[in-house]
Amino acid sequence: MIVNSKVKRYTLLFLGWFFIVLGTIGILLPLLPTTPFLLLALACFSRSSPRFYRMLLDNKWFGPPLQQWEQTKTVRRSIKKKVFLLIIVTFSVSIAVLAGRLGLQLMLACFAVILLGFIYRLNEPESPR
Q1: What is the pLDDT averaged over residues 103-127?
Q2: Which string of DSSP letters, residue by residue, matches the chain?
Q3: Where are the domains of the chain?
Q4: pLDDT at 77 over 90
Q5: Quick count: other Cβ atoms within 10 Å of Cβ 37?
Q6: Is the pTM value of this prediction over 0.85?
């Protein structure tokens, strides 16, 4: 029983750090989403390491949006706008680099539209009245 709980804890710790690495890479690569990986890391750390869970929530860049997601399952409109801009810029550059490869360009454009639709559908917090 103790061995299983240790294996589970270490597996979740490994996965948490793995997802953080993928999320960090996702900042630079348009096809790799950052936020879902950070949410997965947060979930892994919540079950394996209160210290790393707190570290991620207290992070200067990622912490506030993750805290908001944890509390209300919403994303601020300003963050959604930044994500929209980042997706449009990175995918546009990628599509331009692939000039002459219409199939790949169309595939990237489809991915961009799907990502934009996903981000658009995320709930926003209610504005105070």
Answers
A1: 89
A2: -HHHHHHHHHHHHHHHHHHHHHHHHHHH-TTS-HHHHHHHHHHHHHHH-HHHHHHHHT-TTTHHHHHHHHHHS---HHHHHHHHHHHHHHHHHHHHHTTT-HHHHHHHHHHHHHHHHHHHHS--PPPP-
A3: 1-73, 75-129
A4: no
A5: 19
A6: no
